[in-house]
Amino acid sequence: MGLLSDLYRDWMSIARAHGGGTITAGSIASAFRFDGYAVLSMSRIRSFAARHHIPFVNRTLRMAQMALFNAEISKDARLGEGVNFLHTGGVIIGGDAEIGARTILLGSITIGNLDNRGYPKIGEDVVVGTGARILGPITIGDGAKIGANAVVVSDVPAGATAVGIPAKVKQRRET
């Protein structure tokens, strides 16, 4: 898909989240003013510019992301449709990490590597709590929840909740 269609789909997905599952005029306006949408849009434009070798755009938007929103997101990170940055402050997403659609990311999180072994793959509809660290070549299953300040260094199954340092799976929903 093209850049503009990706930006539009993100906007509508975030508007749906702001509207409690439906899209209204108010939720559309709210999503457009939302800092999380601005960070996601900048990331999409940075990746597009890097893939198409457009000079200066990637670095300029990276600096703007850091200065305006205190967010550091790699141009190589793959963000699914409607990734929702509820709080942008302190968000770090490194390398070629993958984050699934409709995942909710709270502030001060790190998604990165551990000893240069690789980056996490996070499924769809995941909630990552404030201050969480997800490190290394691990997989977080669809619908999982990562607790606040958890340090996740091993796989988390779909529908599970992981908490603690190091994180341990505490419960698993029936699917």
Give a brief description:
This protein has 175 residues and is an alpha/beta fold. It has helices spanning 3-18, 25-33, 35-51, 57-69; strands spanning 71-73, 78-79, 84-85, 91-93, 98-99, 104-105, 110-112, 121-122, 127-128, 133-135, 139-140, 145-146, 151-152, 160-163, 168-172. Strand 14 (160-163) and strand 15 (168-172) form a beta hairpin.
Strand order, biggest sheet? Answer: 3-6-9-12-14-15
Q: Quick check: average pLDDT? A: 90
**How much β-strand is present in the residues?**
15-25%
Mind telling me the CATH class?
A: Mainly Beta
* Series of H and E elements: HHHHEEEEEEEEEEEEEEE
Q: Any idea what the CATH superfamily is called? A: Hexapeptide repeat proteins
Rg: 16 Å
Q: Bin the helical content.
A: 25-40%
Main structural class: alpha/beta
Taking the sheet with the most strands, its summary is: 6 strands, mixed
The 3D shape can be described as globular
Low-confidence stretches: none
Q: Give the strand tally.
A: 15
Alpha-carbon distance between the two ends: 31 Å
CATH fold call: UDP N-Acetylglucosamine Acyltransferase, domain 1
> What is the domain tally?
1
